[in-house]
Every structure is written in structure tokens, then in C-alpha cells.
Amino acid sequence: MSTTPAGQENPVCPACGCKFTAKKGKRRNRLQLLQVYRCTECLHRFTTNAGNNVLVIFSDMRQDTLTLNLEHPRMVSTSLAMSKAEREHLLPDLHGVAVYALGVDGAGKDIAYWQTLRDFWTAYFKKTGADLESYSVLRDISTFAR
């Protein structure tokens, strides 16, 4: 465990709110170097920027792979799709990430399909720890560009 400079405290754990966290190294992503912390209570790993991360997805959200196919069923069963996502380890840790799904098009499908697809992605992002801020047919990026 490394110490922080005088007057600077480690951040609070975003998963459990514990104030006792420890530096556990650094991780470089494509844009910056992030300090990685680990909670001493729940062992959750997080970065110093937890809560300030934004994920913008421009997609129809109709996952169509051998592992998870959301495009071909008439309706999306949230419980079946979530159990498959869990079983196949398709749930990343997105705690502190604000997600904006834009351009979620229902072309060629009825409104009930779109609603069940939205229900699945809402449950999916909740399970990953992310905050689904927007799930919209529109592609307006002004909702998060500040």
C-alpha cells in the first residue's frame, strides 16, 4: 500500500462507500494514465475518475452474435438474455460510467420489440453498475456534451 501526499486522501469506494481504499498501481488507457484503487472492505477495484466516465453508443442495440442474439426473436426475453450474458461472462465492470445509447432504431420491428430490447439493456447496464442516462432513437449528443 502506498501513501498519498499530505492533505490528499484516497477516494471513497463507488461500490460500497467505504473511505478506506488503497492505491494498487496505475493503468494506462488510450487517453490518460489512471490511478487504480482497491477498496479494503469489498475489494472493488476502481480508478480515480470513477463517476466521471461517459460511454456513448451509437447503435440499434440489436446484438446479433452466436453468443447473444437480440435481433431475430420477435420479443426479447430480459430474463433469458440476462442469464445468457451472465453465463457467457459478458458483464463488464462499469461502475461510475454514464451510458448514453443513441440511435436505437426499431426499423422493421414493432414497438413492443423495441420496448423489450430497451428493458433488456436497462437491466444489463444496471447489472454492470453503469448509469443508463439515455436510451433514445434520437442521435442528439447535446444531452451529454457540456
Number of helices: 2
| Rounded Rg | 18 Å
Bin the strand percentage: 15-25%
Number of domains: 2
Q: In which order are the strands of the major sheet placed?
A: 1-2-3
Q: How many β-strand stretches? A: 6
The string of secondary-structure elements, in order, is: EEEEHEHE
**Globular, elongated, flat, extended or rod-shaped: what is the shape?**
elongated
Helix/strand/pairing category: alpha/beta
Report helical residue fraction.
Answer: 10-25%
Q: Please outline the major beta sheet.
A: 3 strands, antiparallel
Average residue pLDDT: 81
Distance between the termini: 36 Å
Low-confidence stretches: 1-5
Describe the structure.
It is a single chain. With about 150 residues, this protein is an alpha/beta fold. The chain folds into two domains: about 1-50, N-terminal domain of TfIIb, CATH 2.20.25; about 55-145, no CATH class. Helix content is about 20%, strand content about 25%. The protein has helices at about 80-85, 110-130, and strands at about 20-30, 35-40, 45, 55-60, 95-100, 130-135. The strands form two sheets. It has a three-stranded antiparallel sheet with strand order 1-2-3, with no helix packed on it. A three-stranded parallel sheet has the order 4-5-6, with helices on one face. α1 (about 80-85) runs parallel beside α2 (about 110-130). The protein is elongated and about 55 Å long. The model is unreliable at about 1-5 (pLDDT under 50).
